[in-house]
Every structure is written in C-alpha cells, then in structure tokens.
Amino acid sequence: MRLHKAGHKLLIKILLVLAALNLCVYYIIDNETVFNIVLGITSIFYVLVINFFRSPYREVKVSDDKIIAPADGKIVVIEETTENEYLKEKCIQVSIFMNVFNVHINWFPTNGIIKYYKHHSGRFLAAYLPKSSTENERSTVVVERPDGKQILFRQIAGALARRIVTYAKVGEKITQANQCGFIKFGSRVDIYLPLGTQIDVELNQKVVGSQTVIATIKK
After folding, report:
1. pTM, rounded to two decimals
2. Which alpha helices (H) appear in the chain, and where do they start and end?
C-alpha cells in the first residue's frame, strides 16, 4: 500500500510517541497484562492512521465537458446558492462529505488555469453542517476552464481536521484529476458550478475522487 506524502512526517512522529508510551508502560508499570493491552490498542490506532494516509492508484480518463469528484465520500448537498467569496453569483453547489475511513486526497475536478487561491483560518465545526462552508478552516481554489467558465471548489476542515494541504498556485495550468491537496482527519469539499450545469449525481450517493462524474458542463 502506498502512503501519501502528506502523512510521512506525521506517521514518524506518531510512531515515536506510541513507542515511548509503550516503553513507559513496560518499564514503569511493570505489568505484562497492562503492557499487552496498551500495545494492542496503540498498534490498532497506528494501523488506522496508516490507512487514513493511503494513496491508491487510479486510472483517470480526462474529459473537458465533465466535472469529476474532487474527493471520495458521500454527496450531502445539491442546491442552488450564491457564492460570495469570489464568483459573486448564483451557482449550483455540490458538497462531498468525507468520513475518517475515506481516502482524503483531493483532485482537480476540471482542466484549466488557477485564477484564485486563498486559505482561511476558522473554526472546526462538524463538516456536514452547512455553516462549515463559511466558518471552518478552509481553502478556496478557482479554476478557469478552456471554455472560460470558472469552477470554484473549497476544501473544508472538519471537527477532527487540523490541517488542509493545497498545491494550487495562481497562474498554474492544471490537468483534471491531478492531485490538488489533502485534508487530514475528516472533512468536506464543496464545488460551485455554473447555473444550467447538468448534475449527474444524487443526494447520499457515494462517489470516488478522480473517478465519478458529478456534472456535465453544457456548451
């Protein structure tokens, strides 16, 4: 199993902490039963953390008129709304909620050029709450497609997440399904699409990042 680079340093730190904890239990408490219990719990915990940072190989088919899922998870919002940070217009919002068992890599949903990027500090509310889109720690990226249409997507931290990694750089030309970032420990991604876009997913549908087509841009 491949591990994502976003987890390398953290995994080493956690391993050292857990090793120190087990050594303390072994030498200070000096009770074999307690040591075995602690060793078992910390081992399971570390395996779960390793699983969180997995980086599966996925074959990608790029399509200019399709918008692909930027994350693994479940569709929790499909609605018409107004995007007030950058687009300043009515859009169709599609939101994907990621639980701790999902792959937490994020992918660019379309081809184009990065026109805008901004990281916002904020709260750490549960990511499934609607107000997490505007109040939580988040990063906003806008991609201008070859047809001139702009797609905004937002990485949002959740109750457990404490760091959002984003690779987007303004002016950079990007390719659909390339990795655009990583959110650590539970989160959400919102994507804002032009009115009239054909939505190809349904509420509560499970989607696979870089694979599932969530919308089709009409010419």
Report:
1. 0.82
2. 8-24, 32-52, 132-135
Over the stretch 62-117, which tens digit does the pLDDT of each residue have? Answer: 788 999 999 999 999 999 999 999 999 999 999 999 888 888 889 999 999 999 99
- The residue among 127, 116, 48 whose CA lies nearest residue 87 is 116
Tell me the catalytic residues.
187
Polymer length in residues for the chain: 219
Secondary structure letter of residue 123 according to DSSP: B
CA 17 to centroid of chain Cα atoms: 26
C-alpha separations of 93 from 39, 43, 76 in Å: 45, 40, 10
Question: Residue 158: beta bridge partners?
Answer: none
The answer to whether the CB of 112 falls within 8 A of the CB of 143 is yes
Residue indicated by tokens 């026109």:
115
Instruction: Report CA torsion sign: 169, 68, 72, 189.
Output: positive
SS3 content of the chain, % helix, strand, coil (to 5): 25, 35, 40
Residue 17 tokens, joined: 């902490």
Token pair 């599966």 in the structure block, residue? 56
Between CA 72 and CA 209 the distance in angstroms is 5
Residues 6+ apart with CB under 8 A from 84: none
Sign of CA dihedral 164, 167, 170, 175: negative
Mean pLDDT for 207-211 is 94
